[in-house]
Design a protein that fits this description.
The chain is built from eleven helices and 13 strands. It starts with a strand and ends with a helix. The chain has 385 residues and is an alpha/beta fold. The radius of gyration is 21 Å and the shape is globular. β5, α6 (158-168) and β6 form a beta-alpha-beta unit. The chain folds into two domains: 4-14 and 272-384, Aspartate Aminotransferase, domain 1 (Alpha-Beta Complex); 17-270, Aspartate Aminotransferase, domain 2 (3-Layer(aba) Sandwich). It has helices at 17-30, 40-59, 74-85, 100-110, 132-135, 158-168, 254-270, 272-295, 323-334, 346-352, 370-384, and strands at 4-5, 68-71, 91-95, 115-119, 140-146, 171-175, 194-198, 210-214, 299-302, 313-318, 336-337, 339-341, 359-363. A seven-stranded mixed β-sheet has the order 2-8-7-6-5-3-4, with helices on both faces. Strands 9-10-13-12 form a four-stranded antiparallel β-sheet, covered by helices on one side.
Protein backbone atom coordinates (compact mmCIF):
# COMPACT_ATOMS: atom_id res chain seq x y z
CA UNK A 1 0.00 0.00 0.00
CA UNK A 2 1.35 3.41 -0.96
CA UNK A 3 1.53 5.86 1.92
CA UNK A 4 0.03 9.34 1.65
CA UNK A 5 1.44 11.92 4.06
CA UNK A 6 -1.12 14.61 4.97
CA UNK A 7 0.36 15.80 8.27
CA UNK A 8 2.52 18.68 7.06
CA UNK A 9 1.12 20.91 9.81
CA UNK A 10 3.09 18.79 12.28
CA UNK A 11 6.23 18.55 10.16
CA UNK A 12 6.72 18.76 6.42
CA UNK A 13 7.57 15.58 4.56
CA UNK A 14 9.31 14.80 2.36
CA UNK A 15 12.02 17.42 2.45
CA UNK A 16 13.71 18.63 -0.73
CA UNK A 17 16.52 16.26 -1.70
CA UNK A 18 18.96 19.14 -1.35
CA UNK A 19 18.22 19.28 2.38
CA UNK A 20 19.08 15.63 3.00
CA UNK A 21 22.18 15.93 0.82
CA UNK A 22 23.42 18.98 2.73
CA UNK A 23 22.96 17.33 6.13
CA UNK A 24 24.64 14.14 4.93
CA UNK A 25 27.61 16.05 3.53
CA UNK A 26 28.03 17.93 6.78
CA UNK A 27 27.86 14.74 8.85
CA UNK A 28 30.29 12.82 6.64
CA UNK A 29 32.67 15.49 5.33
CA UNK A 30 32.65 18.55 7.64
CA UNK A 31 31.58 17.62 11.17
CA UNK A 32 33.02 20.70 12.89
CA UNK A 33 31.51 23.26 15.28
CA UNK A 34 31.61 27.01 14.85
CA UNK A 35 33.27 29.43 17.31
CA UNK A 36 35.19 26.49 18.76
CA UNK A 37 37.75 25.60 16.11
CA UNK A 38 40.77 27.55 14.90
CA UNK A 39 40.91 25.94 11.46
CA UNK A 40 39.62 26.64 7.98
CA UNK A 41 36.78 24.07 7.99
CA UNK A 42 35.24 25.76 11.03
CA UNK A 43 35.67 29.20 9.45
CA UNK A 44 33.99 28.07 6.24
CA UNK A 45 31.14 26.57 8.25
CA UNK A 46 30.67 29.87 10.07
CA UNK A 47 30.11 31.42 6.64
CA UNK A 48 27.23 29.00 6.00
CA UNK A 49 25.66 29.79 9.38
CA UNK A 50 26.04 33.53 8.74
CA UNK A 51 24.47 33.19 5.29
CA UNK A 52 21.53 31.29 6.83
CA UNK A 53 20.95 34.23 9.19
CA UNK A 54 21.06 36.59 6.22
CA UNK A 55 18.51 34.55 4.27
CA UNK A 56 16.13 34.44 7.24
CA UNK A 57 16.46 38.18 7.87
CA UNK A 58 15.76 38.84 4.19
CA UNK A 59 12.81 36.44 4.02
CA UNK A 60 11.07 37.99 7.04
CA UNK A 61 12.10 41.63 6.65
CA UNK A 62 14.00 41.30 9.90
CA UNK A 63 16.71 43.89 9.33
CA UNK A 64 20.17 43.14 10.71
CA UNK A 65 20.94 39.42 10.48
CA UNK A 66 22.79 39.51 13.81
CA UNK A 67 19.36 39.60 15.43
CA UNK A 68 18.52 36.15 14.03
CA UNK A 69 18.87 33.68 16.90
CA UNK A 70 18.88 29.90 16.48
CA UNK A 71 17.08 27.63 18.94
CA UNK A 72 15.93 23.99 18.91
CA UNK A 73 12.38 24.85 17.86
CA UNK A 74 9.69 27.51 18.06
CA UNK A 75 8.61 26.32 21.51
CA UNK A 76 12.03 27.23 22.87
CA UNK A 77 11.93 30.52 20.96
CA UNK A 78 8.59 31.51 22.48
CA UNK A 79 9.74 30.53 25.95
CA UNK A 80 12.91 32.63 25.62
CA UNK A 81 11.02 35.68 24.36
CA UNK A 82 7.97 35.51 26.64
CA UNK A 83 9.77 34.57 29.85
CA UNK A 84 12.63 36.95 29.14
CA UNK A 85 10.43 39.92 28.30
CA UNK A 86 7.34 39.73 30.53
CA UNK A 87 7.67 40.77 34.15
CA UNK A 88 5.41 40.38 37.22
CA UNK A 89 2.67 43.00 36.99
CA UNK A 90 2.63 42.97 33.19
CA UNK A 91 -0.52 42.25 31.20
CA UNK A 92 -0.48 40.54 27.80
CA UNK A 93 -3.12 39.81 25.17
CA UNK A 94 -3.26 36.69 23.01
CA UNK A 95 -5.82 35.22 20.62
CA UNK A 96 -8.30 32.52 21.58
CA UNK A 97 -6.71 30.24 18.96
CA UNK A 98 -3.24 29.89 20.47
CA UNK A 99 -1.15 26.72 20.54
CA UNK A 100 0.18 25.48 23.87
CA UNK A 101 3.61 26.74 22.84
CA UNK A 102 2.18 30.16 23.71
CA UNK A 103 -0.41 29.24 26.33
CA UNK A 104 1.68 27.08 28.64
CA UNK A 105 4.39 29.72 29.08
CA UNK A 106 1.67 32.31 29.72
CA UNK A 107 -0.08 30.09 32.28
CA UNK A 108 3.29 29.46 33.92
CA UNK A 109 4.03 33.19 33.99
CA UNK A 110 0.54 33.87 35.39
CA UNK A 111 1.60 32.06 38.55
CA UNK A 112 4.44 34.58 38.85
CA UNK A 113 2.26 37.67 38.51
CA UNK A 114 1.77 38.13 34.76
CA UNK A 115 -1.84 38.61 33.63
CA UNK A 116 -3.23 37.60 30.27
CA UNK A 117 -6.53 37.88 28.42
CA UNK A 118 -7.67 36.17 25.24
CA UNK A 119 -8.98 38.21 22.33
CA UNK A 120 -12.19 36.44 21.28
CA UNK A 121 -12.69 34.68 17.97
CA UNK A 122 -15.66 33.20 16.14
CA UNK A 123 -16.54 29.63 15.13
CA UNK A 124 -14.36 29.97 12.01
CA UNK A 125 -11.31 30.89 14.08
CA UNK A 126 -11.40 34.53 12.97
CA UNK A 127 -10.11 37.14 15.40
CA UNK A 128 -12.45 39.86 16.67
CA UNK A 129 -10.18 42.72 15.64
CA UNK A 130 -12.64 45.34 16.90
CA UNK A 131 -12.24 44.00 20.45
CA UNK A 132 -8.47 44.45 20.65
CA UNK A 133 -8.07 48.10 21.63
CA UNK A 134 -10.80 47.88 24.26
CA UNK A 135 -8.89 45.07 26.00
CA UNK A 136 -5.65 47.03 26.36
CA UNK A 137 -4.90 48.03 29.97
CA UNK A 138 -2.46 50.49 31.51
CA UNK A 139 -0.11 47.62 32.31
CA UNK A 140 -0.43 45.83 28.95
CA UNK A 141 3.11 45.15 27.75
CA UNK A 142 2.60 43.00 24.66
CA UNK A 143 0.34 41.12 22.31
CA UNK A 144 1.44 37.60 21.39
CA UNK A 145 -0.39 35.88 18.58
CA UNK A 146 -0.20 32.99 16.15
CA UNK A 147 -0.04 34.08 12.53
CA UNK A 148 -2.30 31.19 11.49
CA UNK A 149 -4.14 28.48 13.40
CA UNK A 150 -2.50 25.07 13.48
CA UNK A 151 -6.00 23.61 13.80
CA UNK A 152 -8.00 25.14 10.94
CA UNK A 153 -5.49 27.34 9.11
CA UNK A 154 -7.34 30.63 9.67
CA UNK A 155 -4.90 33.53 9.25
CA UNK A 156 -4.93 36.32 11.83
CA UNK A 157 -4.83 40.00 10.74
CA UNK A 158 -1.22 40.38 11.80
CA UNK A 159 -0.56 43.69 10.06
CA UNK A 160 -3.61 45.34 11.65
CA UNK A 161 -2.76 44.00 15.12
CA UNK A 162 0.82 45.17 14.65
CA UNK A 163 -0.40 48.68 13.89
CA UNK A 164 -2.46 48.65 17.09
CA UNK A 165 0.64 47.60 19.02
CA UNK A 166 2.66 50.40 17.47
CA UNK A 167 -0.08 52.93 18.28
CA UNK A 168 -0.15 51.92 21.95
CA UNK A 169 3.56 51.26 22.44
CA UNK A 170 3.17 47.49 22.92
CA UNK A 171 5.58 44.77 21.92
CA UNK A 172 4.22 42.51 19.20
CA UNK A 173 5.34 38.87 19.38
CA UNK A 174 4.28 36.55 16.54
CA UNK A 175 4.20 32.76 16.40
CA UNK A 176 4.89 31.92 12.75
CA UNK A 177 5.01 28.13 13.14
CA UNK A 178 2.36 27.53 10.48
CA UNK A 179 3.22 30.36 8.09
CA UNK A 180 7.00 30.81 7.86
CA UNK A 181 7.94 29.70 4.37
CA UNK A 182 4.43 29.64 2.92
CA UNK A 183 2.99 33.12 3.60
CA UNK A 184 4.75 36.46 3.05
CA UNK A 185 5.99 37.98 6.32
CA UNK A 186 7.57 41.43 6.66
CA UNK A 187 8.44 42.33 10.23
CA UNK A 188 8.83 46.02 9.45
CA UNK A 189 5.60 46.35 7.52
CA UNK A 190 3.67 44.27 10.09
CA UNK A 191 5.23 46.08 13.09
CA UNK A 192 6.51 42.79 14.52
CA UNK A 193 9.05 43.14 17.34
CA UNK A 194 9.79 39.43 17.81
CA UNK A 195 9.10 36.75 15.20
CA UNK A 196 9.39 33.13 16.33
CA UNK A 197 9.76 30.39 13.71
CA UNK A 198 10.51 26.71 13.35
CA UNK A 199 12.54 25.14 10.59
CA UNK A 200 10.84 21.77 10.17
CA UNK A 201 7.39 22.81 8.91
CA UNK A 202 6.87 25.03 5.85
CA UNK A 203 10.52 26.08 5.90
CA UNK A 204 11.16 22.45 4.87
CA UNK A 205 14.21 21.98 7.09
CA UNK A 206 15.08 19.22 9.56
CA UNK A 207 13.53 18.82 13.00
CA UNK A 208 15.45 20.33 15.91
CA UNK A 209 16.17 23.75 14.40
CA UNK A 210 14.16 26.92 14.96
CA UNK A 211 14.75 30.45 16.05
CA UNK A 212 13.55 33.98 16.55
CA UNK A 213 14.27 37.41 15.13
CA UNK A 214 14.05 40.52 17.29
CA UNK A 215 14.27 44.24 16.68
CA UNK A 216 17.26 46.13 18.09
CA UNK A 217 15.22 47.73 20.87
CA UNK A 218 14.17 44.29 22.16
CA UNK A 219 17.70 43.00 22.74
CA UNK A 220 18.16 44.56 26.17
CA UNK A 221 14.50 44.06 27.11
CA UNK A 222 14.69 40.26 26.95
CA UNK A 223 16.60 38.56 29.75
CA UNK A 224 18.37 35.44 28.42
CA UNK A 225 16.69 32.24 29.57
CA UNK A 226 19.82 30.13 29.02
CA UNK A 227 23.48 30.90 29.55
CA UNK A 228 26.78 29.15 29.01
CA UNK A 229 29.72 28.94 26.66
CA UNK A 230 29.43 30.78 23.35
CA UNK A 231 33.00 30.61 22.09
CA UNK A 232 33.19 34.40 22.36
CA UNK A 233 34.68 36.67 25.08
CA UNK A 234 35.79 33.53 26.91
CA UNK A 235 37.80 35.61 29.39
CA UNK A 236 34.62 36.55 31.29
CA UNK A 237 31.86 34.59 33.04
CA UNK A 238 29.28 37.24 32.17
CA UNK A 239 26.70 36.63 29.43
CA UNK A 240 27.67 38.45 26.22
CA UNK A 241 25.65 41.61 25.70
CA UNK A 242 25.89 41.46 21.89
CA UNK A 243 23.88 39.55 19.32
CA UNK A 244 23.42 36.73 18.56
CA UNK A 245 25.70 35.37 21.29
CA UNK A 246 23.47 36.85 24.01
CA UNK A 247 20.90 34.13 23.31
CA UNK A 248 22.97 31.29 21.80
CA UNK A 249 24.89 29.42 24.51
CA UNK A 250 26.10 25.86 24.08
CA UNK A 251 26.74 23.74 21.02
CA UNK A 252 24.47 24.69 18.15
CA UNK A 253 22.54 22.26 15.97
CA UNK A 254 24.84 22.71 13.01
CA UNK A 255 23.36 19.81 10.98
CA UNK A 256 19.95 21.47 11.39
CA UNK A 257 21.25 24.88 10.34
CA UNK A 258 23.01 23.38 7.31
CA UNK A 259 19.78 21.63 6.33
CA UNK A 260 17.81 24.85 6.85
CA UNK A 261 20.32 26.71 4.71
CA UNK A 262 19.60 24.28 1.86
CA UNK A 263 15.81 24.46 2.31
CA UNK A 264 15.82 28.27 2.34
CA UNK A 265 17.69 28.28 -0.98
CA UNK A 266 15.14 25.81 -2.37
CA UNK A 267 12.20 27.95 -1.21
CA UNK A 268 13.74 31.11 -2.67
CA UNK A 269 14.20 29.42 -6.04
CA UNK A 270 10.67 27.99 -5.97
CA UNK A 271 9.04 31.18 -4.67
CA UNK A 272 6.80 31.52 -1.60
CA UNK A 273 3.91 32.74 -3.76
CA UNK A 274 4.20 29.66 -5.96
CA UNK A 275 4.21 27.35 -2.95
CA UNK A 276 1.22 29.09 -1.37
CA UNK A 277 -0.78 28.99 -4.62
CA UNK A 278 -0.10 25.30 -5.12
CA UNK A 279 -0.95 24.28 -1.55
CA UNK A 280 -4.16 26.31 -1.54
CA UNK A 281 -5.13 24.73 -4.84
CA UNK A 282 -4.93 21.31 -3.18
CA UNK A 283 -6.91 22.70 -0.24
CA UNK A 284 -9.70 23.97 -2.50
CA UNK A 285 -9.85 20.63 -4.28
CA UNK A 286 -10.16 18.88 -0.93
CA UNK A 287 -12.87 21.24 0.33
CA UNK A 288 -14.81 20.86 -2.92
CA UNK A 289 -14.83 17.11 -2.35
CA UNK A 290 -15.87 17.42 1.29
CA UNK A 291 -18.80 19.83 0.90
CA UNK A 292 -21.15 17.18 -0.60
CA UNK A 293 -20.33 14.91 2.35
CA UNK A 294 -21.18 17.73 4.76
CA UNK A 295 -24.47 18.36 2.96
CA UNK A 296 -25.35 14.68 3.49
CA UNK A 297 -24.64 15.00 7.23
CA UNK A 298 -21.66 12.63 7.13
CA UNK A 299 -18.98 15.10 8.22
CA UNK A 300 -18.58 18.64 9.49
CA UNK A 301 -15.95 20.98 8.07
CA UNK A 302 -14.49 23.06 10.88
CA UNK A 303 -13.52 26.66 10.10
CA UNK A 304 -13.52 28.39 6.74
CA UNK A 305 -15.07 26.70 3.70
CA UNK A 306 -12.90 28.48 1.13
CA UNK A 307 -9.20 29.24 0.67
CA UNK A 308 -9.23 33.00 1.30
CA UNK A 309 -7.61 33.92 4.60
CA UNK A 310 -6.26 30.49 5.41
CA UNK A 311 -3.34 28.10 5.07
CA UNK A 312 -3.46 24.56 3.67
CA UNK A 313 -4.86 23.03 6.87
CA UNK A 314 -8.35 21.50 7.03
CA UNK A 315 -10.01 19.95 10.08
CA UNK A 316 -13.16 17.87 10.03
CA UNK A 317 -15.33 15.88 12.37
CA UNK A 318 -16.73 12.57 11.17
CA UNK A 319 -20.32 12.45 12.42
CA UNK A 320 -21.17 8.78 11.92
CA UNK A 321 -17.79 7.41 13.03
CA UNK A 322 -15.62 8.37 16.00
CA UNK A 323 -12.85 10.69 14.82
CA UNK A 324 -10.10 8.53 16.32
CA UNK A 325 -11.52 5.42 14.67
CA UNK A 326 -11.81 7.23 11.35
CA UNK A 327 -8.19 8.42 11.54
CA UNK A 328 -7.03 4.89 12.36
CA UNK A 329 -8.91 3.50 9.37
CA UNK A 330 -7.51 6.21 7.10
CA UNK A 331 -4.02 5.01 7.99
CA UNK A 332 -4.64 1.25 8.30
CA UNK A 333 -6.90 0.79 5.27
CA UNK A 334 -5.79 3.60 2.93
CA UNK A 335 -2.27 4.54 4.05
CA UNK A 336 -3.33 8.15 4.72
CA UNK A 337 -1.47 9.80 7.58
CA UNK A 338 -3.31 12.59 9.42
CA UNK A 339 -3.46 13.99 12.94
CA UNK A 340 -6.44 13.45 15.23
CA UNK A 341 -7.32 14.92 18.64
CA UNK A 342 -6.91 18.34 20.23
CA UNK A 343 -3.69 19.33 18.43
CA UNK A 344 -2.10 21.01 21.49
CA UNK A 345 -4.67 23.82 21.24
CA UNK A 346 -7.52 23.14 23.70
CA UNK A 347 -8.86 26.69 23.81
CA UNK A 348 -8.90 26.85 20.02
CA UNK A 349 -11.21 23.84 20.09
CA UNK A 350 -13.38 25.59 22.68
CA UNK A 351 -13.57 28.62 20.37
CA UNK A 352 -14.56 26.41 17.45
CA UNK A 353 -16.99 24.28 19.46
CA UNK A 354 -15.02 21.05 18.96
CA UNK A 355 -13.83 20.52 22.54
CA UNK A 356 -13.35 17.87 23.91
CA UNK A 357 -14.03 15.65 20.89
CA UNK A 358 -11.32 17.14 18.71
CA UNK A 359 -10.95 16.81 14.95
CA UNK A 360 -9.09 15.02 12.19
CA UNK A 361 -6.61 17.41 10.62
CA UNK A 362 -5.44 17.18 7.01
CA UNK A 363 -2.50 19.45 6.18
CA UNK A 364 -1.12 19.69 2.66
CA UNK A 365 2.39 20.45 1.50
CA UNK A 366 4.25 21.33 -1.66
CA UNK A 367 5.01 17.66 -2.44
CA UNK A 368 1.42 16.42 -2.19
CA UNK A 369 -0.52 15.74 -5.40
CA UNK A 370 -4.08 16.09 -6.66
CA UNK A 371 -4.29 12.29 -6.86
CA UNK A 372 -3.50 12.05 -3.15
CA UNK A 373 -6.20 14.59 -2.36
CA UNK A 374 -8.72 12.61 -4.42
CA UNK A 375 -7.75 9.42 -2.60
CA UNK A 376 -8.33 11.14 0.74
CA UNK A 377 -11.79 12.30 -0.35
CA UNK A 378 -12.70 8.81 -1.52
CA UNK A 379 -11.43 7.29 1.74
CA UNK A 380 -13.45 9.67 3.90
CA UNK A 381 -16.53 8.97 1.80
CA UNK A 382 -16.20 5.21 2.18
CA UNK A 383 -15.44 5.35 5.92
CA UNK A 384 -18.38 7.65 6.68
CA UNK A 385 -20.99 6.13 4.37
Amino acid sequence: MDKIYLDNGATSFPKPKEVADAVYEYMTVVGANINRGGYQVAYDLEGTVFETREMLAEMFGGGDCKNVVFTKNITESLNVVLKGFLQPGDHVLCSSMEHNAVMRPLVQLEKKGVEFDRIPGNEKGELDLDAVEGMIKENTAAIVMTHASNLVGTVNPIKEVGQICRKHGLAFIVDAAQTAGVLPIDMKEMCIDALCFTGHKSLLGPQGIGGFIIRDHMVELIDPLLSGGTGSISHTEEIPDFMPDRFEPGTMNIPGIVGLHASLKWIKEKGIDTIETYELGLTQRFLDGLIPLEEKGLIKIIGLKGTEGRTAVVSIQTLSVDCADAAFRLDFEYGIMTRVGLHCAPNAHKTLGTFPTGTIRFSFGIFNTEEEVDTAIRAITEICS
